[in-house]
Amino acid sequence: MAGIAWEVKTLLRASDHLGRWGGEECIVLASNTDLAEAEKLAERLCRHINELELETVARISVSIGVTEWKLVI
């Protein structure tokens, strides 16, 4: 999984954060990103991961959910 995490990180901005969320789940926190931009990022990540050729398994696929959170004061 470390290889996949590295691949994901190559597509993120310096201000984005990748972390583990539960067992096999991961989370990307993309600050200052609206819902449309987040959807584009999710599509890019899915496409990139689906195209990877891995040594231990030929290919994998992922599903990504997107949500937007705004702090209202």
Features:
single chain, 73 residues, alpha+beta, 2 helices, 36% helix, 11% strand, elongated
Describe this structure as you would to a colleague.
This protein is α+β, with helices and mostly antiparallel strands and 73 residues long. The chain is built from 2 helices and 2 strands; from the N terminus they run αββα. It has a domain at 2-51. It has helices spanning 2-10, 35-51; strands at residues 17-20, 26-29. Strands 1-2 form a two-stranded antiparallel ribbon. The mean pLDDT is 88.
Please report which band the strand proportion falls in: under 5%, 5-15%, 15-25%, 25-35%, 35-45% or over 45%: 5-15%
Q: Give the helix/strand class.
A: alpha+beta
Seen as an oligomer or otherwise, the chain set is single chain
How big is the Rg? Answer: 13 Å
Q: Treating each run of at least 4 consecutive H or I residues as one helix, how many helices?
A: 2
Provide the fold topology.
Blueprint: H1 2-10, E1 17-20, E2 26-29, H2 35-51
Antiparallel strand pairs: 1-2
What can be said about this structure in brief?
With 73 residues, the protein is an alpha+beta fold. The protein has helices spanning 2-10, 35-51, and strands at residues 17-20, 26-29.
